[in-house]
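tool_call: predict_structure(chain=1)
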Amino acid sequence: MAGEGFRALVLEDDHDAAEFLRIALERYGGMDVVVAGDAEVALAELRRRRFDVLVSDIQLPGRSGLEIIPEVRATDPTLPVMIVTAYPTVSRAVEALREAADDFLVKPVTASQVVERATELAHRARRERDESRQRVLAIGAHPDDVEIGVGGTLAAHAAAGDEIVILTLSGGAVGGSAAARHDEAAAAAAVVGARLVHLDFPDTRLDPADGLIGAIEDVVAEAVPHRIYTHSIHDRHQDHRAVNDAVQIGARQVPSLWCFQSPSATVAFAPNRFVAVDGFVETKLRMLAAYASQAHREYMQPDVVRATARYWARFSPAREVEPLETVRTSETVATASTLRATGAVDGQEAAAHGSGA
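tool_result:
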């Protein structure tokens, strides 16, 4: 009840009914409640943040509460849906259950009924998410490397409730003030709630044999990640290649390892997995905006970031994509909903059907 910290999304176009649900869930359920008056607003809210339960009517302006359930599931398969309607026919109930609603209440309902059923569903969602939560480690040579390569993917992990650690191995002193770049890295990590581990190996002189492997082993032992994202070996920058070499050894026991694209990647970069980051590019841009000292660089410009995400989408049904090279993975190729339900990324991760040029 109160203090659980559950977040509910109410989809209801009738003002009085929406107020009743909001007050019941806030006052008696202790929930943080957001009210949406139509389906498009509700879907936008779901893409922006994570909820523990969706309470929806059937009859709505535009698309109905039932019609949007498949899109709700694609956005967050772990989100329970409770239908509260004034249309108590058997056919409506069957239709709701067929469309994968988790509960069905017929108006008029009492506040205690709404709170009891919504709280049960929210508890179930939290249990399922806790069981599937992933631990993610992103490793970069310099401040901003990780954000450029997988900022959208990390934003999707954050939305899924996953634990994120960013390991940055140098201060980036060659590219600017190391102190300023550390502050920028901390601000960028905070955007997605990641824990930053920022080391001070010499910029442009990273060497796997000079402590890099041991440092990675230490962070891996402490974070125990399920998956790692790091630099590709197909890269012109010597530090990026050195990090790839060190990760291959220092993180050899981590079950899943993928490599991201850097601005210095060569034409040999050949992704075979394409992570849909629809709805997360703006968060990536906020992470990159934290690097004010690097704002003059072309690859940090918002139009370039968006164009790159759109370019890689040609290999995916998504509109915005980040490309990855698979080194190894413990996951089987699965449907989008399965990947989201297991905390894989954002529910829209797609296996490649070809490689990039």
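agent: The chain is about 40% helix and 20% strand. Proceeding to next step.
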